[in-house]
Write a structure and sequence with these properties.
The complex is a heterodimer of chains A (508) and B (159).
Chain A (H helix, E strand, L loop, with lengths): L1 H11 L2 H19 L5 H12 L4 H26 L8 H12 L3 H35 L3 H17 L5 H16 L1 E2 L6 E2 L13 H19 L22 H9 L2 H16 L5 H15 L11 H24 L6 H12 L8 H4 L1 H32 L4 H20 L2 H19 L4 H24 L5 H4 L1 H27 L9
Antiparallel strand pairs in A: 1-2
Helix pairs in contact in A: 1-16, 2-3, 2-4, 2-16, 3-4, 3-14, 3-17, 4-5, 4-6, 4-13, 4-14, 4-16, 5-6, 5-13, 6-10, 6-11, 6-13, 6-16, 7-8, 7-19, 7-21, 8-19, 9-17, 9-18, 9-19, 11-12, 11-13, 12-13, 17-18
Chain B lengths: L4 H21 L13 H28 L12 H38 L5 H25 L13
Chain lengths: 508, 159
């Protein structure tokens, strides 16, 4: 294993892979630091650039974006009090007060170094636990896969903040999109209405890009005219105080329990399907506060808050990568895009991924590990430029991002059809967001829909007894967990409704 | 009774699923597979119909209990700007097959900037044009020359 990892590192150190990894990390840090630009959108922006690259080079670039984006968000968190990306939300709670107390350098570099430590601890788990997880997944038959996918969707739908029903309906919409086109067994056309345009179904990536990018950009445009007093602070005018990197590192290392616990929280949240870094960041912050000897200092510039949030959101990346490589299920929207990119290159992720593609899988591990020192270097060398970039106007950013989205959709198969799909689902995604529907369950339904159908049919073809889904121990256990997940979500929603009784959403 | 947005969404979901369900059930069966191609879509549609109906019922019940929500509490949003932005994107995509990627991108980036932030000085106009031309040129150069992606040519312009 270590030999394969060493080979992976040597491979990534070649210019062919190092350059995409470097640029991916740079774009990730910049994208992450721009308020309103999420890591998902940044990875969507970089996606078309990876089509012409070697699969490992493309995946290295995306891994770089993922790692860089998870850290980049802390820059605006600390300097402007606005999370650059949702994964850094909890960093704002203490990073901004610390910067306002005259220590912006310490705030940012505590976050950056905590990201590196959390990320590298997460890398240990990624390297050593993904294989055993994949070995467990290899024991799965179609019944277990079907039940696993059902559990994943139940969990994600249950996590929808607004409403469990909307989460479930969003999942159903995602599943419905996947059944349009020809069926996977007999190639019978379904819901095509005789149209050639949708005869082949909807390609995953244009749908994903449309839903995510448009929903995000249009929501930002909605608020464009609203004034934001905090934004009027210019990040580029910040002057860093003198501080020592050694001291900052000592502040992190002297709290091994905090660092380890935040990493574990991030890792577990990352492994759970389609839950983003924001949940891990907030949960780790909450845990750090509960375990802290000085909880009263949280929210006033406490280093523990920054360390917990940043170590956790970078460890979250390794958890998401583990899920995609061991089970073929995306840990979040970013890995969903990576899964789509793998499909374009003809690579099937899942339990056989590591054994069938050892070079590629250890290359991804290596890219993940090497992205951390690169991110550190980028933050050190390009901080002044990044501070300037954070003040880029939406009027400039939005059209450039949209052009790249259009190119990304077009370049998939060099037809305008994908671009039309992009626009259709862009409008649809925006409408869904305005109707208060969570997008994560839809995306998971979209990704897993085909696999659910194939495994369901395969199970029935092997043995037509439907009770096998319940009587096979792992499958039954997974379905039970799915039911419990929904019951738990219903209980939480009822409790939440009681607390917020009377607060209703406005009409359309 | 006036429906809220959840009720409207539930109603649309229910209508779509009930409209598609007969189609799914009517799909031909295959001899080699114990369940036909309509089996799984039917499951999905029934699931969708149930969740939509539940969402509709939840909205109706909530409104019966609390009455219509106060729309005035919502923060102001620039929906007109969003509609214009979508129209500009639609125009860009519609024009691309006719005038090609390069020209349509210049027009799109310029138009989008104009919609969001109208320039007030000659320098701002120059910046707007430079960003529009620069975006098109850099994207074209990177994708066509380095990544070997053939971007759309215009049927009218030929390039």
């Amino acid at each position: 294993m270590l030999e394969l990892l060493a080979n992976g590192i040597l491979t990534i150190l070649q210019w062919k892979y190092m350059v995409p990894l470097f640029f991916g990390t740079l774009v990730g840090v910049i994208g992450g630091s721009l308020p309103g630009v999420t890591i998902t959108m940044t990875v969507i922006i970089i996606l078309p650039f990876t089509y012409g690259l070697d699969p490992l080079a493309g995946l290295a670039a995306m891994t770089g974006v993922y790692v860089g984006g998870s850290t980049g968000g802390l820059i605006t968190c600390c300097l402007l009090g606005i999370p650059g990306s949702p994964a850094s939300i909890a960093t704002t709670f203490d990073g901004f007060p610390m910067a306002r107390n005259g220590e912006p350098g310490r705030a940012i570099w505590l976050g950056v170094w905590a990201s590196v430590w959390g990320g590298l601890l997460g890398a240990l788990c990624l390297v050593f636990l993904t294989g055993p997880l994949a070995a467990i997944a290899l024991e799965f038959g179609p019944w277990e896969y079907f039940s696993l996918f059902v559990l994943a969707m139940a969990m994600v739908a249950g996590l929808a903040e607004a409403s469990l029903l909307k989460g479930l309906l969003s999942t159903a919409i995602g599943l419905l999109i996947t059944v349009v086109g020809t069926d996977p067994i007999g190639s019978v056309p379904r819901f095509t209405f005789g149209s050639e345009f949708i005869g082949g179904g909807f390609a995953f990536l244009p749908v994903l890009i449309g839903i995510f990018a448009f929903a995000q950009i249009m929501t930002d445009i909605e608020k464009a005219k609203a004034s934001n007093p905090q934004r009027s602070l210019s990040a580029s005018s910040v002057h860093f105080e003198r501080f020592s990197h050694l001291k900052v590192n000592w502040e992190i290392i002297k709290q091994p329990f905090l660092l380890a616990w935040a990493t574990i929280v991030g890792l577990i949240i990352g492994i759970l399907p389609a839950i983003g870094g924001s949940a891990s960041s907030v949960m780790a912050y909450d845990q750090a506060k509960k375990f802290s000897k000085t909880p009263e200092r949280f929210g006033k510039g406490h280093p523990e808050g920054i360390i917990a949030s940043e170590a956790s959101n970078n460890a979250n990346v390794s958890g998401s990568l583990m899920t995609i490589m061991a089970f073929g299920i995306p840990g979040d929207a970013v890995t969903a895009v990576m899964l789509g990119a793998m499909t374009i290159h003809g690579i099937q992720s899942g339990p056989l991924f590591i054994s069938q593609n050892p070079g590629l899988s250890y290359g991804i591990y290596a890219a993940y590990i090497l992205a951390h020192p690169l991110m550190l270097l980028i933050c050190w060398a390009f901080m002044p430029i990044m501070l300037r970039v954070t003040s880029v106007r939406l009027a400039v950013l939005a059209p450039v991002v949209l052009v790249l989205c259009v190119v990304g959709a077009y370049a998939l198969n060099n037809t305008m059809n994908s671009v039309y799909v992009l626009l259709i689902f862009g409008v649809f995604g925006y409408v869904l967001v305005k109707a208060g529907f969570p997008l994560a369950p839809l995306i998971l339904g979209l990704i897993l829909g085909d696999q659910i159908e194939v495994n369901l049919i395969r199970a029935i073809m092997t043995d037509s007894d439907p009770l096998l889904f319940l009587t096979r121990p792992i499958s039954g256990g997974l379905l039970l967990a799915a039911v419990l997940s929904v019951v738990l979500a219903i209980w939480q929603h009822l409790r939440h409704q009681k607390r917020t009784a009377g607060e209703e959403d406005a009409d359309f | 009774m006036r429906l809220g947005r959840d009720g409207i969404a539930g109603l649309i979901g229910l209508a779509v699923s009930l409209m598609l369900l007969p189609q799914a059930l009517g799909l031909p069966k295959l001899p080699i597979v114990p369940v036909g191609p309509g089996f799984y879509p039917s499951m999905v549609l029934v699931f969708m119909a149930l969740t939509s109906a539940a969402l509709l019922a939840q909205d109706l019940l909530a409104r019966r209990r609390t009455g219509p929500a106060d729309a005035a509490a919502a923060p102001p949003r620039a929906y007109g700007l969003v509609a214009t932005a979508f129209a500009v994107v639609a125009g860009y995509i519609a024009l691309m097959p006719f005038i090609g990627f390069r020209l349509s991108t210049v027009l799109f980036v310029a138009a989008f900037q104009l919609v969001l932030d109208r320039p007030a000085s000659a320098l701002s106009w120059a910046k707007l044009v430079a960003i529009a031309v620069g975006t098109s040129a850099v994207t074209y150069a990177v994708f066509e020359h380095y990544l070997l992606v053939l971007l759309p040519r215009g049927a009218w312009t030929g390039w």
